[in-house]
Design a protein that fits this description.
The protein is of the alpha+beta class. The protein has helices at about 40-70, 100-125, 130-155, and strands at about 5, 10, 15, 20-25, 30, 35.
Length: about 160
């Protein structure tokens, strides 16, 4: 069985893909325009990406190595002290931070994610045929957030005392 593609004839050992490309028994692909793409040509494009990655890693390695070799190293007792914004360190190294700051930051992140979710939802809700389904999904989502906020309120997490 023979098929023709452009001005070339294809033998029965060739396979025609759904996209109209022909793959030969040797692994060559013939596009609809009659161009032959070999496996070596296909992987050559990936070799360019690999070469760029190697050059990037080498650039970073050379920069760090040059910095280590060229910087002056003169350790003194003052330089070996812990640096805290120009102030001499006093007291112990453990600082006690109240949890409420983290709780408010966490609540902010939750509601920021909620607002980010609302914008794509609004565009899908406006599309025809998605109204009731997306409305129910949004109320389920807001219900989960409301339950979490109610739980935090009942535990007294939101009280700033």
């Amino acid at each position: 069985m023979r098929e023709t593609l452009g001005d070339s004839t294809i033998a029965a050992t060739h396979v025609v893909t759904g996209a109209g490309h022909v793959v030969t028994a040797a692994g060559h692909a013939v596009t609809g325009a009659g161009h032959v793409v070999t496996a070596a040509g296909y992987f050559r494009s990936y070799s360019a990406v690999g070469l760029l990655a190697v050059v990037g890693v080498l650039f970073v390695a050379v920069a760090f190595s040059a910095g280590r070799l060229l910087r002056p190293v003169v350790p003194t007792p003052e330089k070996l002290l812990t640096y805290e914004c120009g102030v001499d360190p006093v007291g112990e190294g453990w600082a006690h931070t109240q949890v409420r700051y983290y709780v408010y930051a966490f609540l902010y992140v939750i509601f920021a994610v909620d607002s980010v979710f609302l914008f794509p939802w609004a565009t899908v809700f406006a599309a025809p045929g998605f109204g009731a389904t997306t409305l129910v999904e949004m109320f389920v989502f807001l219900g989960f957030l409301a339950v979490g906020l109610l739980y935090a309120y009942k535990k007294g997490v939101l009280a700033w005392t």
